[in-house]
Amino acid sequence: MAALLIPRRSRGMRTRLGCLSHKSDSYNDFTAILPDKPNRALKRLSTEEATRWADSFDVLLSHKYGLAAFRAFLKTEFSEENLEFWLTCEDFKKTRSAAKLASKAQRIFEEFIDVQAPREVNIDFQTRELTRRNVQEPSLSCFDQAQGKVHSLMEKDSYPRFLRSKIYTDLLSQTQRRLS
Question: How far apart are the first and last CA of the chain?
Fold first, then answer.
């Protein structure tokens, strides 16, 4: 009866907001999360490989399809900036040009570390300030502490949830069904 008293417009807005806030980690079509030639990739992914992702977080990160599945999971949790920052730092460490080092460091800082950055990662004030100072005289290790904090956060928080997620369990089921 109370629902009848709520204006139609208000109910519609509430429904739309509810859809936006709903986190769905159900993927029936894994082709959306697997890089390059997804149908072939899923056929090549073995149950043993997918099972090994549960051995350690670093095993997951080192596997192309594990990384793609984890990224898809983080998107459902609205926290993919953590993985993107970690990957960007890994790429940054490969920078060989001193001229590019400073501009890349500044761009990474502005995108992920600075307060109100577009893809701000969750790090403590001390780490943020240390990183700010490090970027003033950039080196290949200027993001190491921030990257370590983000890695630890993902490993202790997101990774266990990923292993329990529908994305991961369904992916394992699909690889096992293929063997039957």
Answer: 52
- Give the tens place of pLDDT for each residue, 71-127: 999 999 999 999 999 999 999 999 999 889 999 999 999 999 999 999 999 999 999
Contact 64, 149 (CB under 8 A): no
CATH homologous superfamily of 48-177: Regulator of G-protein Signalling 4, domain 2 (1.10.167.10)
Between CA 56 and CA 60 the distance in angstroms is: 7
The 10s digit of each residue's pLDDT in 27-53 is 444 445 555 544 555 667 889 999 999
pTM, two decimals, is 0.77
Angle between helices 98-108 and 80-92 (to 10 degrees): 170
User: Residue 25: CA atoms inside 13 Å, Cβ hemisphere, count?
Assistant: 23
Strand blocks (E) in the chain:
none
